[in-house]
């Protein structure tokens, strides 16, 4: 399994699939599962509530079909009463549960699939013709993805450093914007947003910050 404590991995996955997606990965059942099965695992209280409601429905249908056997009717009535009570309790318990909807689960699975982090097998039901998708997570490719992300981040840092090195900056004291010298000349050193005078901005500290980040990468192939 992948190390979600690793800030690079955690950050990458959060950008890719969000908190809900990370929850999904952490709670993914073993083996091949359908999107609905995943959804049920992610919403345990709502699943209990749904099952309780199904039981009520089933008993109501049985009542209709029972005919006029008094003992059977009595038994079913008793069972239904209990099932309804259970369903109401389960519904109340699940009301506060944070919900990850089936739609969200599908979206996450699709993004993971596009990034080759899931294996999907289609199965057609011989009778109904329905297609069932069975999913399995495989995060083996994550190291490669993280390496790519790192290289991208590194390149961006170098680009940013070069930009900071080769320009002189003027900024609005109200934090509206920051312009390079040529742009500031064009606005007569006045903030085009709020009208304040722009002031020279020393970016030495910022450049040191970038240098620090670059150093953290150590030896990085471009
Ligand atoms: Zn301004």
Can you characterise this structure?
The chain has 222 residues and is mostly helical. The chain folds into two domains: 7-140, Winged helix-like DNA-binding domain superfamily/Winged helix DNA-binding domain (Arc Repressor Mutant, subunit A, Orthogonal Bundle), CATH 1.10.10; 143-217, no CATH class. 60% of the residues lie in helices and 10% in strands. It has helices at residues 7-27, 35-42, 44-65, 70-94, 102-114, 142-166, 181-186, 204-217, and strands at 118-124, 131-137, 169-171, 178-180, 199-201. The protein has a three-stranded antiparallel sheet. It has a two-stranded antiparallel sheet with strand order 1-2. Strand 3 and strand 4 (178-180) form a beta hairpin. Helix 3 packs antiparallel against helix 4 (70-94). The longest helix has 25 residues, at 70-94. It is elongated, with a radius of gyration of 29 Å. It starts with 6 loop residues before the first helix and ends in a 5-residue tail after the last helix. The mean pLDDT is 93. The structure holds zinc ion. Zinc ion is lined by residues 172, 174, 176, 191, 193-194, 196.
Topology overview:
Layout: H1 7-27, H2 35-42, H3 44-65, H4 70-94, H5 102-114, E1 118-124, E2 131-137, H6 142-166, E3 169-171, E4 178-180, H7 181-186, E5 199-201, H8 204-217
Antiparallel strand pairs: 1-2, 3-4, 3-5
The structure holds zinc ion.
Protein name: Transcription factor E
Family: Belongs to the TFE family.
Keywords: Coiled coil, DNA-binding, Transcription, Transcription regulation
Low confidence ranges: none
Total domains, how many? Answer: 2
Averaged pLDDT, please? 93
What is the 3D form?
Answer: elongated
Q: What's the total count of β strands?
A: 5
User: In percent, how helical is the residue content?
Assistant: 55-70%
Strand content: 5-15%
CATH C-level label of the largest domain? Mainly Alpha
What is the spatial order of strands in the main beta sheet?
Answer: 4-3-5
> What is the gyration radius calculated from CA atoms?
29 Å
Taking the sheet with the most strands, its summary is: 3 strands, antiparallel
* Ions and ligands: zinc ion
Which structural class fits the helix and strand makeup?
mainly alpha
Which CATH architecture of the largest domain would you pick? Orthogonal Bundle
> What's the order of the H and E elements?
HHHHHEEHEEHEH
State the distance separating the first and last CA atoms. Answer: 29 Å
- Within CATH, the superfamily of the largest domain carries the name Winged helix-like DNA-binding domain superfamily/Winged helix DNA-binding domain
Family: Belongs to the TFE family.
Protein name: Transcription factor E
Keywords: Coiled coil, DNA-binding, Transcription, Transcription regulation
Pfam families: TFIIE_alpha
């Amino acid at each position: 399994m992948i190390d979600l404590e690793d800030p690079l991995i955690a950050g990458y996955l959060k950008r890719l699939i969000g908190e809900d997606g990370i929850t999904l990965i952490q709670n993914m059942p073993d083996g091949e599962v359908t999107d609905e099965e995943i959804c049920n695992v992610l919403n345990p209280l709502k699943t209990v509530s749904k099952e309780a409601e199904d039981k009520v429905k089933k008993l109501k249908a049985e009542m209709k079909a029972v005919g006029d056997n008094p003992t059977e009717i009595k038994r079913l009535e008793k069972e239904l009463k209990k099932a309804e009570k259970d369903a109401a309790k389960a519904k109340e318990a699940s009301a506060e549960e944070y919900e990850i909807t089936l739609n969200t689960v599908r979206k996450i699975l699709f993004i993971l699939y596009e990034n080759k982090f899931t294996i999907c097998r289609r199965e057609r039901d011989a009778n109904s013709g329905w297609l069932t998708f069975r999913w399995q997570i495989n995060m083996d490719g994550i190291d490669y993805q993280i390496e790519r992300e790192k290289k991208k981040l590194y390149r961006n840092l170098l680009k940013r450093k070069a930009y900071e090195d080769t320009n002189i900056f003027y900024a609005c004291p109200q934090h509206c914007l920051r312009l390079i010298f040529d742009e500031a000349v064009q606005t007569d050193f006045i903030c085009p947003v709020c009208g304040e005078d722009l002031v020279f901005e020393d970016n030495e500290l910022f450049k040191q910050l970038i240098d620090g980040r670059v150093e953290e990468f150590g030896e990085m192939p471009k």
